[in-house]
Amino acid sequence: MAFLKRSKLSSFFRQNLVSSCSLLVMAPLVVAAAEENTESSALEEVAVVGSQIKGADVEGTLPVSVIGEEDIALMGAASGDELLRSIPQMGQVGFNESVTTGVNAARGDVNSINLRSIGTGNTLVLLNGRRMVLHPGTQTENYIPVVTVNSNTLPVNGLERVEVLRDGAAALYGADAVAGVVNYVMKKDYDGAMLNMRYGASVGTELDEFTVNGANGFEFNDGATKLNLTGTYYSKNGFYASERDYSANSDLRGFFTGDSLFEGDTSLDNRSSIHGWGAFDFDDLGLLHVRPTDLVQDDGSSVGESDCSYSLSDSDICLDDGSGDRALRGNRNSVRMLSPDSERINLFSFLTHELENGSEFYTELGYYRAEVDRVREAAGLLSNSRFEVPADYYWNPFGPVYFDDGTLNPNRIVPAGDENVPDEGLGFTLTTFTPYDVGLRKINVVDTSYRFVSGLRGNWGDWDWDTGLVYSEAETIDSTDNRVSHSLFQQSLMLDTEDAYNLFSGLDVDDPTSLTDPTPNSEAVLDTFRINVKRQSQTSLALADFKVSNANLFSLQAGDVGLAAGIEWREESFDENRDDRSDGTIQFTDEVTGELVNVSDIMGSSASPDADGSRRVMSLYAEMLVPLLRDLPLVDSLDMQLALRHENFSDVGSVTKPKLALSWYVNDWFQIRGAYSEGFRAPNLMQLHQGAISVVNTRTDPVTGESVGLEEQRLGNADLQPEENWSHTYGFVLTPFDGFTFTADYWDIRQEGVVGILGASNGLALDAVLREQGSYNPNVIRAETTDGSVGEPILFLDEYLNLDPREISGMDFSAMYSFDTDIGNFDLKWNGAYLIKFDQDPSEEMQILIDAGEVATNAGSLIGEDGRPRWRSTLSMNWRQDQWGAGVFAQYTSAVTDTSTLADSDTAAPDTALPVDSYTTVNANVDYRFVGGMRDGLRIRLGMNNIFDEEPDIADEQMGYFGSLYSNRGRYVYLDVAKNF
Question: How confident is the model at residue 60 (pLDDT cuts 50, 70, 90)?
Fold first, then answer.
C-alpha cells in the first residue's frame, strides 16, 4: 500500500456529497430508538444467544439486543468499531486509531469490545455461535495488558445481525462471559448475487473511505449443496491531527484561557520535555542546554544573549544553565496522524451439504487482512538511556584545543588555558535530546487472520445434535522505519571528524517549538544509525465441541421441559517475538564507561522481552428450561432456566458455575424477568507470562517536587488467581398494545480479585506518605546522592496482582413503536444505558493513601471518570413508503471528567477534575429502491453522520479528546449504492 496515498476522486466526491447531504438534512424526519429488539417476533433471531436449546421458546426471558440490517444501515457505520460504538451498553474502546503510543501498543486495524465498561476482555465474542480468535496485540487498561477480539475483522455489510446478551453467561457459553456475549451472525443465504459500493468523506479533513462488498449464492446437487461467497474491500485515506482544532496542538492550555480553574495548568501541556534542543551534563560545568539566543518564555518574558551562559559559534543559538525551557518543547501533534491510512479485505465462504440420512455437513472459511500506515515524530532519549560522550567528540564546544591528528579544533568556544575547561577538553553526559532530522517514524502494521470451521449437525428423534471443529490464527507484523539505535548513535558521537552527528545545531530559531531542523545533518551521517524495528505477534484458537438439545425432553403440567448438554475442548496460545534490539539480544553498552546502559538498543523505547504462552480448557455444560406454572390468576406463565458449566483450565485450576433465570408473564402484556449467574475469568496469557515490560512516563514526584521521566517495569505474575464474579438482572417488559414494547432491566456485577497494579502515580504518592511515617516504598528505586538528600526516582517496579473487589450496577431501557400511516410505515426505537454504581474498593496500599488525605487513582467511585459516562442513549426512526425510505439516528453520551488534570485553585474544591462536556450526534439518510426494468434491485442511499459537526470536548489526552469514547470523523457524508442480481 502506498504510504500516505490520496484518492484522486476525493475532491470530486467531497464537493458533490456535501451539496447533496445539505438537502438531505432538510427532510422532515422523526428521531427514534436504537438497536434493542429483545421482543422481536422472529424467535430464530435470538436462538443463538440466551439458550443452547434449539427451538426452545426463550423469547424475552433474558435481556438480548438484536441489531439487524436496517439498524446497521441507520447507524451509518463503515466499520465494526463504529457499529459497536452505537450500542449504549458498550463502554470505552481502548484499542482505537487515535492511540499513537510506542511499540507496546496495538497500532494496526484493531478496535476492542468492552460491554458494560467493565474492561476489555470481559466480553465473550462469538461468530455464528462459536468463539473467535483474540487479536495478537495488547493494550494497557489501568496499566495492565488486556486482549480483545478485533471488531474490524468482520465487515459491516456482510452481517445479518449482531446479538448482544446483556447478562452474565458463564454457565452457557464460558466462564469469561462476565459482562455478556456478543454474537456476530453472517449472511449465509444469498439468493443470486449482490454488489454494494460506498464512498464517504469527513468534511474539513483529507479523510475519505471507499468500500465495495460483493456476495453470491450457488446451489448444486439439486439444492442439496449450497455455497455462499462474500468479499469486502475497504480503503481509507487518513488525516493529520493538525486538521482538527482539538488535536492540532499538544499544548492544550490555549483552550482554557480565562478559565479560573485550569488556565495555565502545565498538566495540559503534553509537549515532550525530550525535545530537539539538547541538554548536556558537562564535567565541572554542570547541566547546560541549547536554546535560541533570543527566546520568549512561557510567561511572556524574554531572554537574550546576555542571559546565555556560553555563546556558540552559531550566533543564533547559545548554551544556558539547566535542563531546558518549557517554551522550547515541540508540538508533536503537528506531524502526527489522527487517523491512519488503511486497507482491509474480508473474505468468507459458507458451504452446506445435506446428506442422504438428513444430517448436514457444513464448512465456514474466513480470511482477513489489513494494512495500516501512519507517521509520528522521531523518538527522543529516555532518562534510563543517558550515556557518555567523549571530550574529543568533533562538535563538542568544550572539546580539546587540538585533535589527535594535531589539527586545531574549530568548535571549541573557550580559549586555551581556561581553568574550567582544560586543554584536553571536557566530556559530557547526554541527558536530553531528540534527533528530529532523522525524519518521521513511519509505522506500518499488517494484520491477518483466518478461520476454519467444519462440522456435522442433524436430528436423532427429538434430539438435535451438532459437532464441529474450529481452527483460527491471527498475526500482526508491526514495523517502524526511521528509528535510532542507541549504540550506533553513540558511535557517531565518538568521531573526531565532521562525519560525527552534530548535537549542537539546534532547531528552527524562528519557530523553536516546531519539529524542523534548518541545519540538518547529512543523510550519510543519519543513515549510520537509522534502523527498522519489527514486532511479530501471533495468536491461535483450536476448538472442538459436541452438543445436543431437546426442546421436548418430557412434559410437565405446565408444558414441555427442554434440555441441552455439551462438551467443548479448546486451546489458546500466543507468541510475541520482539525486535532483537528490544528483547535484549542486542543491548546498549556505553562505549565510554563500558557499563550496560539499557537492555533496549532503541532510542525512545525501553526493553520489551519476547513472550509466549498457551492454555487448554475442557468444558462440560448442561441447561434446562422448565415450565413451572400456566394459566393461573396473575400467572399467565412462569418458566425457569437452569444452567451449569464446569471448566478445567490447564494453568489456573477448575471451576463450576451456575445460572438461574425466571420469566413470569403476569398476563399477555406484562412480563417480569430476572437472572442470577456466577462467573470466573482467568487471567489472560499476557498477564501470566509477560516478562518485565519497561515504559518511561513523565511523573511528578511528591517527595522532590520534580517532574521526572520514570522507568516503570510491569511484570507478569504466574501466581495470579482467576477473578470471581456474581451478577444479577431484574427487569420487566410491557407490551400494552400492538407495535409497542417497553423494557427496563436492572443489573449488577460484583467482582473479586480483579487483576491490576498499583501504578506509578500511586506508588510515588505512597512513598511520600511512608517517608513521612519513617519508612518508604521499596518498589520506588531512587538515584543515589552524595549529600544524603533523597534522589529522584529512576525506576518503579509493578507486578500484576489480584486486587480488591469492585461492584458495578446500572439500568437498561428500551422503547419500540412500529405503526403504519397513510404516509408510510414508521419504526421508532429508544435505547438507554444508565450507570448507577462503579465502585472500586481500595487495596491496602491505596487505603494508606486515602487515610493520609491523598487522592488514590482507580479507587472509590469511578462513575463519570475517564470515559465512564453515567448515561448513554440512542434514539432512532426508520420510515418507509413504497420505494422511498429515510431514517435518523441520534446518540447521546453524558459528561465525564478527566482525572489526569486536577484544578489547582483557591476557588475550586480540592482535586476538582477537568470536566468533559456531554456529546450528542445526529445521523440521517434517505434511500430509493428501484423496481422493474434494468434497474430492478438497485438501491441508492445518501447519508450524513454527525449533521451538526459536533466536536468532542477537550480532554488531557494525546490527541486532545477521549478517543475511546468519541469519533474524530466530524460531519461525514456518504453515498451508498447496492444492486441485487
Answer: low
